[in-house]
Amino acid sequence: MFNKVDIAEAVRGRENLTIYGETKIGLVRSLNEDAFAISEARDIMLVADGMGGYVGGEIASKTVVEAVLYYFNNYTYASTRQLEKAIQYANSCILSKIAIEPSLQGMGTTLSLLTLSEGNAFWGHVGDSRIYLFRDGDLTQITPDHTFVQELLDQGRITQAEAADHPDRHVLTRAVGVDQELEVAVGAFPVRENDRLLLCSDGLTSSLSEEIIVEALSDYRRSEKEIIRRLFDLVYEAGAKDNVTAILATL
């Protein structure tokens, strides 16, 4: 497991699957509240972006990563229902920590979780971190954004251009560890050779356009590590106002 670390080196695991993950603190943050993990078998990967002020966000993201991996040590990860249960278990773990230490009240985290099994990808998601599928030159956002601004967009009350600069664009409508009852978005899709799967915190997507991400992912001559390093360089050039975390897997 890689959790609260700076680098997880690229590895070759299941058949021809290669993965690289990394997290970096932003230029205006004193703590990195992001966390990520890649399972030993390279078939479970997740990204979390904590919130809650001093140390709270860091504890929340670390807790959710550890809880999900612990859950999958005991249960299958090859069904959307099990991913939903894993995230709800992680939700209860964070709430239990808050009950023990009330000063942590208000902490929570996003979570984007993806598992691979027999040619299929299963995903579970809460918040505004994202999972993307890159296939044949096209980038598809798999996960919905659970944000106030996305609700405004869905209702047709603002435009995409207005959403980009909206003052409440980072306000979440749901997060892990906030409420007893947590609604988890889940789904599944088939994967095939040369697909690329990108999991990332909003530190990446709030700084870079999809066009820039597509350009980077289109270069199959570069390794996953080289691509993520390039994207992170661009985030820093843009000011890196948030922590940034990403996992890139190529099948």
Automatic annotation (TrEMBL):
Domain of life: Bacteria
Pfam families to which the protein is assigned, alphabetical: PP2C_2 (PF13672)
Species this chain originates from: Megasphaera vaginalis
Record protein name field: Phosphoprotein phosphatase
Lineage: Bacteria, Bacillati, Bacillota, Negativicutes, Veillonellales
Domain named PPM-type phosphatase: residues: 18-251
